[in-house]
Each structure stands twice: as C-alpha cells, then as structure tokens.
Here is the input.
Amino acid sequence: MLTVRGLCKRFPGEPPRVLIADLDLDIAAAEFIAVMGESGAGKSTLLNLIAGLERADSGSIVLDGAELTAMTDEQRSIHRRRHFGFVFQAFHLLPYFDLADNVALPLLLNGSTHEDARHRAEALLQRVALAGRSRAKPRELSGGEMQRVAIARALVHRPQMILADEPTGNLDAGHAREVLALLRECAAQDRTACILVTHSQVAAHAADRVYTLGAGRLRPDSAP
Here is the structure.
C-alpha cells in the first residue's frame, strides 16, 4: 500500500537540522503501525511528508502505485483529499456543524451531493456507536465521543490510509483504549492502512508493528 524510500527532510540552520534522514518504510493494506519517539524527533513531520503537506528534500513516497513526491502541489492536494483520512489530538470538529455534516465534509470536498454525503455520514455515525446523534453539535459530546466522530470523518470517503497524530492525547486511559480499538477495528474492516503517532506505550500496543523515530530514522521495536 505505502512504500517510502530514502526520505530526507532538513530545516535551515547552521548547520542545517536533519529531521528525517534516508528513511525507508513499507506498509501493507489494513496494517496498523505505531511510530513513537521523543518530542521534536520528527514524528508529525513524517506524517506531513507522507500526506504531501510538506515537501521532502529527497526520496520517494508511493501510495498504491502513485508517487506523491513527483506530483505538483495541486495534484497532491487532490490526492490527499481522496486517499487519506486524518485523526488529530484536538479532534478539529467544526463547532457550528452538526455531527453528520462534520463527518460528511471529506465527501463534500470530493464532490458528493449533500444528501448522499449525509446518508453515508449517518451510516458511519451508527458504526461508531453514535446512531441517533447526527444532528447534535460537537459541544454536546464528551472527548471520547468527539474522537469517535473524528474517526468516522476519517473513514467516510474510504481512504487508503489513515494518519493519526496523537489521537488519544486528550483522552483518559479508558476512553483512549476504546478509541484505539474502534480505530483499529474500522480500519481493518475497510482494509485501510493506518500510521499512529504517539507518545503512549498503551496506544502503541494497539499496533501490528511499533517503530521508534530517532536521529532521523525508524528503528523497529519488539512486537507489541
């Protein structure tokens, strides 16, 4: 599903700061991996590079045969909307939209009608145990419920890959386990690959494989 080869990212300075250095990674469809590492190690930068939100200095990123590193900015933007789903620590739900419209947003950006997008969104809300809440606003939900909405939004357009950046960082241990189990279950059902960036050993144990990012490279850890 995803092949990364020789990925490098430097930031200006004297000397330049090398955040990602000759990094390789392979992920299969439906595989769930976790990336750990100290703050500032480049975990979020790695996700941004894979998603095409930042340009690599060198190397290649290929998602299901499409080479992102060879695309223009516009091509990467279109590809990102169609093929990636995102889950963030801070949820990033739109406060004045109801839950169904929040979940439907990726479909609307990809050209679906509002009626079709809401229908699909309501089905996803049912799947994440929020049936009957489609007209609620985010302020009416707990943190765990908001993250379930974010998972539904990430999956609604059937992406090939989900990128999850500290998705349990604002949740207590119980809700964190619940959200991770749901994310893993939903991704497996849809054959969607997932990269989870986390500081949490508990969160990392939800993954098939665990890596530590340090000195610009990924080091495989013991199987969780």
About this structure: The chain has a mean pLDDT of 91. The chain has one domain: 32-44+72-220. The CA atoms of residues 100 and 115 lie 11 Å apart.
